Amino acid sequence: MSVKGVDVSSWQPEDYRTEGMDFAFIKITEGTSYINPKWVAQRATARDAGLVTGFYHFVRSGSMSAQADYFLGEINLAAGDMLVLDWEDPDVSNADKDSWLRYTQGKAPGHKVLLYCNRDYWLNRDTTSFAGDGLWIANHNNDPGNPGIQAEWKFHQYTTSPIDTNVGRFDDRAALRSWAGG
Length: 182
Description:
Blueprint (H helix, E strand, L loop, with lengths): L2 E6 L14 E8 L3 E2 L3 H10 L3 E7 L5 H11 L7 E5 L7 H14 L5 E6 H7 L8 E5 L16 E5 L5 E4 L4 H8 L2
Parallel strand pairs: 1-2, 2-4, 4-5, 5-6, 6-7, 7-8
Antiparallel strand pairs: 1-9, 2-3, 8-9
């Protein structure tokens, strides 16, 4: 794996470090009432650096279609933008997770729709193994590219220090951009 990236939310600055990075995932929404106030500037930081961009929604219990519409309503999608469901809330079921992913795939054709979850959720909570177009797995083991699961994955978040850092299963940025549709 030779692609490296970061993921940012309102906890990180608008002008985070991009040197040596190939991609960035940016939190936009949570539930149906929260919007990251920094996301537009964070997107500009990524795009100005030529990074492949992805955006994520932190899912809460409730209507999955309403949350997906809320998320998608904030984005002016560009070719190659990836869309991610951040599944960390224990009140969100497998059926809900799958519903959001499928609904979003239908609403944003031509964009990769992925699932983000931690290793424990994937191994002990997930029962369907459905991750949309790809799995982004979090296992903060400081061992990039070895998330400790057997399932095929696309991205591995391996540390939170000094910022959430990830690797992708792509030969280079061009391969990632091609896969993402950009």
